[in-house]
Amino acid sequence: MQHFHDEIRIAAPVEHVWAYLSDGSHLDDIAPQARHTDFTGSLDQVGTTFVATGRMMGITSRRTFTVAEVEPRRLCRIRPERGAGEMAWRLEPEGDATRLAFDTDYDVPGRLPGFVTGFLAKGWERDMQRMLTDVKAFTEATVPVHA
User: Fold this and answer.
1) Which CATH superfamily, name and number, covers 2-141?
2) H-helix or E-strand spanning residue 15
3) How confident is the model over 1-50, as pLDDT tens digits?
């Protein structure tokens, strides 16, 4: 099993970043490697479920995820129905900005040689880093301007 951790500073208040991440309609923008559907609520409510459908190595995968833990404006932990893939967003205020940390565990499917697994893991890490960069860009672009 692989573990990924990365952090990014976002020039937006915690409340704004939290509101953006809690709105499931943004998942397709920030995680375009999958399509996210069938939300039963918002991502800031424990028990909310949704389906992520994506492709890896030519195989279509459809997985159900559940919001397992929420600390408003601080933490959202999402777990897959089965298998690896737990994700956690952690937000910390940094003055007028937010430090966003993202953690996930994942498995490369099947029994593959180590060099192939390593190659796929690097691709996954690049996708996760791109996702954080996209969250930063989208949230900063939508920060309300104070009069």
Assistant:
1) START domain (3.30.530.20)
2) helix 14-22
3) 677 899 999 999 999 999 999 999 998 888 878 899 999 999 999 999 99
